[in-house]
Amino acid sequence: MKIGFIGFGKVAKNLTGLIDSENITFLTSAQNRSENTIENMKKSDVEILDTFKEVAAFSDILISANSPSQALDIAAEYGKYSKGIYMDLNNISPKTTLKINEYVDNFVDGAIIGKIDAANPVLYLSGKNLEKLDFLDDFLEVHKISENPGDVSKLKLLRSMYTKSLSAVLMESFEIAENLDLKDEFFDILTLTEGNDFKKKALSRINNTKNAKKRKAEELEQIIDYFENHDLTMVKASFKKLSQ
User: Fold this and answer.
1) Residues 186, 9: Cα–Cα separation, whole Å
2) For residue range 67-86, what is the model confidence (pLDDT) as tens digits?
3) What is the DSSP string of 183-210?
4) Which CATH number fits domain 154-243: 1.10.150.20, 3.40.50.300, 1.20.140.10, 1.10.1040.10?
5) Model confidence over 110-146: pLDDT tens digits?
6) What does each C-alpha distance from 169 to 20, 22, 42, 189, 219 come to in angstroms?
7) Given 3.90.550.10, 3.40.50.720, 3.10.180.10, 2.60.40.10, which CATH number is that of 2-146?
8) In angstroms, rounded to a whole number, what is the distance separating the alpha carbons of residues 188 and 192?
9) How far apart are CA 19 and CA 174, in angstroms?
């Protein structure tokens, strides 16, 4: 079996290490890639072809894992050469997912939940012919949701709706606790109900939110756009908070 990657970032690098089988060959291309990326390809022991067109044509499973902004263009450019399964693992909206489905056959909507370079990532999949991906169960925790491309993308948005809104409330509460000189007591009282590791996780969430608040605000804006016909009172408030 041959698994090809359009792009070779953290996702591709991690998956080549986790899916360890002598029956699987990984393909990618150095086309328009940086020296650092090419070096990572060589370290990962993947077969490097001249073009991504060749990668698409020769792969039984073609994985797009680059950036959300490029996902649709890549599907339009290389999807027509893919004869096997085309899997998108970019953090894209359901609208983009459905557009990609128009460009490619055998489309699988995918998402890695958790850190993309974790030792035990969880993979969510929706689309047809998912039985052809049963072999992934030997290497990863895989959840097959449905035959409908877009269902996983919707779940990603719902997850982001919760986590980013929660982060906004947590950050606001923490800031007030600091101003009142009750920061330690704030964490102590929440630990009683949220668990002993709450402080560590909360501080990590707060720092992550502050460092990436622009991107997180943009993701909330996508949620507001997609679920415009639903009650989004808390999401809109969180968007306003993260946009400040």
Assistant:
1) 39
2) 888 899 999 999 999 999 99
3) HHHHHHHHHHHH-TTHHHHHHHHHHHHH
4) 1.10.1040.10
5) 999 887 778 888 999 999 999 999 999 999 999 999 9
6) 41, 48, 44, 16, 16
7) 3.40.50.720
8) 7
9) 41
